[in-house]
Amino acid sequence: MISGRSAPDQSFLARLAVVVFAIAVLAALAIATSVPVSAQHAPAAQPSPAAHEAEPGQEAHEGGWLPTVAKAVNFAILAGVLVYFLKTPLTEYLSSRITKVRQDLVTAAETREAATRQLAEIQARLEALPRELEDLKARGAEEITAERERIRQAAGAERERLLEHARREIDMRLRIARRELVEHAAGLAVAVASERIKRSITSDDQARLLERYASQLKEVRA
Length: 222
What we know:
Layout lengths: L6 H27 L3 H4 L8 H152 L2 H19 L1
Helix pairs in contact: 1-3
């Protein structure tokens, strides 16, 4: 974009246009000065034979050094104009271009160094990848073994807990059954004894037992 050009570039283009215009003017002057003097100023009268004999040497002499001097002067003027107008902008332009090229070279070197460093890091990671995979595999195997051991221990502990709970439950039920059995046996024994007593004791025996019980109560109260 034109608006994006820097001030040195615009100044350089402006001075270059001036120089081109000056070159065109100097070229026109050079063409004008190279025209023979005889063509510009025609003689008014017929020259004499002696003058006619001397004119070719004079024209040859004038035609030999005048255009050369004019061209040398034009070249010197052109060189001076070019040096005057182009020295500063050309120096600035070349300096800016050299600075830009140096900056680009520095940036390219930094980019290359960063890319080389990143490539080295990637290469190191790729070289370390198999070892990391082996480490992960070994760590995974260790974790699996540890998890299996933990599950086995947890299952063993749960089994022992259930067995202990079952033992306590069985013992409790056995004690209850034994107590009920003893109570039932005692009840049966009392019933059988009562039945036997009822069958074997007479009314006289009952009277004697009552008297004995009454005498024992009296002794206890005394």
